[in-house]
Amino acid sequence: MLQMRPGCECCDRDLPPDDATARICSFECTFCSDCADKRLAGRCPNCGGELLPRPRRAADKLAKFPASTTRVFKPEGCARTP
Prior knowledge:
Blueprint: E1 22-24, E2 30-32, H1 33-39, E3 52-53, H2 59-64
Antiparallel strand pairs: 1-2, 1-3
């Protein structure tokens, strides 16, 4: 089950579970669309995987299986791509 992390690893922007702008890689590293597109060129700085839209969880399932509250913030790994 997806962790649905609460924020962007680059800019620490809040990304609620229903946010359509959240992007993740296959390891669930999480970024906002601005950082994913403009800073990272669609590639995860941690694993090199592609960043894709994070699926949203239905509200009734979110109540039973809540999103993570653990933030991951690593701005040093989010340098602008050339």
